[in-house]
């Protein structure tokens, strides 16, 4: 019988790393690092892996790839945008990329994929057909830039439960953020919500500046129009035509969006301390505040603000996900015990696992 084991990513916002044993094969789903303090999964009991499948390119799902040699150097499977945005070939990348919407064979197992929103090239995957598992990866059905389609039915589900039972809509969050008085610095991942926020501010008539990392992603994704939501290509073209390029010595003006998300890397690492110190721009973080990172410290000390921009399922999204999958058992990932219990209470009738393992 199939078995899923969470080596990391259960009971908290740890790096994604799951092992699925199915049809005599052992598949690893993501191999991340962080987001807190550079944490890596414990692979001491992982054993040999037949294939490694990546849901998307964020570091908390791919940052552990240097550990691949401990797994027997399995082939790595990812979508074409994830590979392109990596900047260099992923180690051991399989020749045939994962499709946006379709079916492939990996280690002799049928793997079906569909767009998962959230980030460039992000996919959910159904492994082993209707009697197998759906892994959503990080999932969002609210993005206006990255496409999303509901997953297929399966007997078991490993879902992105990052927000627990919280249910505030992105439309409300974006309206509140757009109403903030500038100048603003918004640290954000270049391959994710950063470009979404930039497009929204530009559409609302704000002056927008983007760091080179964001501009690079926008240019790359123009080459993957099938991986953009309706209107997404036009939004990227407008950003590339109208957004200013941000640099380390840029003055505070308009809305400035810079990598990385926690101001511990990228151009945000240079700009956030300067703007906090001088008060020339307000710094607003919009995603997970990594423990010990400048983002967490600045928000805790009331020197920066936190305003969420949804990139994971809110409660209604989780309800729709589970209605599509119709699983007999669910492992909720990327959420602590309190959030998991709140989600279970809000969705009675769903059998949520309280252990880092599923067997069905």
Characterize the structure shown:
- The protein has 360 residues and is α/β, with parallel strands linked by helices.
- It folds into 2 domains: 3-165 and 312-359, Ribonuclease Z/Hydroxyacylglutathione hydrolase-like (Metallo-beta-lactamase, Chain A, 4-Layer Sandwich), CATH 3.60.15; 170-306, 3-Layer(aba) Sandwich (Rossmann fold), CATH 3.40.50.
- Helices cover 26% and strands 21% of the residues.
- The protein contains 10 helices and 18 strands.
- It has helices at residues 59-62, 80-85, 170-178, 193-203, 212-221, 232-242, 266-278, 294-300, 315-325, 337-346, and strands at residues 3-8, 17-22, 25-31, 51-53, 75-77, 102-106, 109-115, 123-127, 133-135, 156-160, 184-187, 208-210, 244-245, 255-258, 282-285, 305-306, 329-333, 357-359.
- The strands form 3 sheets. A 6-stranded mixed beta sheet has the order 5-4-3-2-1-18.
- Helix 4 (193-203) packs across helix 6 and helix 5 (212-221) packs across helix 6.
- The N and C termini lie close together (6 Å).
- The model has no long low-confidence stretch (mean pLDDT 97).
Total of domains: 2
Shape: globular
Strand order of the largest sheet: 5-4-3-2-1-18
CATH fold annotation of the largest domain: Metallo-beta-lactamase, Chain A
> Which series of helices and strands comes N to C?
EEEEHEHEEEEEHEHEHHEEHEHEHEHE
What is the percent of helical residues? 25-40%
**Major β-sheet profile:** 6 strands, mixed
Distance between the first and last residues' Cα: 6 Å
Range of strand content: 15-25%
Helical stretch tally: 10
Mean pLDDT: 97
CATH homologous superfamily annotation of the largest domain = Ribonuclease Z/Hydroxyacylglutathione hydrolase-like
* E-strand count: 18
Secondary-structure arrangement, i.e. CATH architecture of the largest domain: 4-Layer Sandwich
């Amino acid at each position: 019988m199939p078995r899923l084991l969470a080596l990391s990513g259960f009971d908290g916002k740890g790096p994604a790393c799951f092992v699925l044993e199915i049809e005599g094969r052992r598949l690893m789903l993501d191999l991340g690092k962080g987001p807190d303090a550079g944490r890596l999964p414990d692979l001491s009991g992982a054993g040999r892996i037949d294939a490694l499948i990546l849901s998307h390119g964020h570091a908390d799902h791919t940052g552990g790839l240097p550990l691949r040699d401990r797994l027997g150097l399995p082939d790595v499977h990812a979508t074409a945008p994830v590979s392109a945005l990596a900047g260099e070939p992923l180690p051991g990348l399989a020749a045939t990329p994962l499709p946006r919407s379709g079916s492939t064979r990996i280690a002799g197992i049928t793997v079906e994929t569909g767009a998962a929103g959230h980030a460039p090239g992000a996919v959910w995957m159904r492994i082993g057909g209707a009697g197998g598992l759906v892994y959503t990866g990080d999932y969002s059905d609210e993005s206006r830039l990255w496409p999303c389609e509901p997953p297929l039915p399966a007997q078991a589900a490993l879902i992105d439960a990052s927000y627990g039972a919280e249910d505030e809509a992105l439309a409300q969050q974006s309206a509140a953020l757009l109403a903030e008085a500038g100048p603003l610095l918004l640290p954000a991942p270049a391959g994710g919500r950063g470009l979404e926020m930039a497009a929204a501010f530009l559409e609302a008539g704000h002056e927008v500046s983007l760091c080179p990392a964001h501009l690079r992603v926008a240019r790359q994704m123009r080459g993957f129009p099938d991986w953009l939501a309706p209107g997404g290509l036009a939004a990227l073209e407008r950003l590339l035509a109208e957004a200013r390029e941000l640099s380390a010595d840029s003055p505070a003006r308009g809305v400035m969006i810079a990598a990385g998300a926690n101001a511990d890397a990228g151009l945000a690492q240079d700009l956030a301390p300067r703007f906090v110190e001088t008060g020339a721009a307000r710094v607003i973080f919009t995603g997970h505040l990594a423990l010990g990172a400048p983002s967490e410290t600045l928000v805790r000390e009331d020197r920066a603000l936190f305003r969420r921009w949804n990139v994971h399922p809110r409660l209604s999204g989780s309800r729709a996900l589970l209605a599509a999958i119709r699983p007999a058992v669910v492992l909720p990932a990327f959420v602590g015990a309190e959030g998991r219990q709140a989600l279970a209470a809000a969705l009675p009738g769903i059998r949520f696992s309280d252990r880092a393992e599923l067997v069905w």
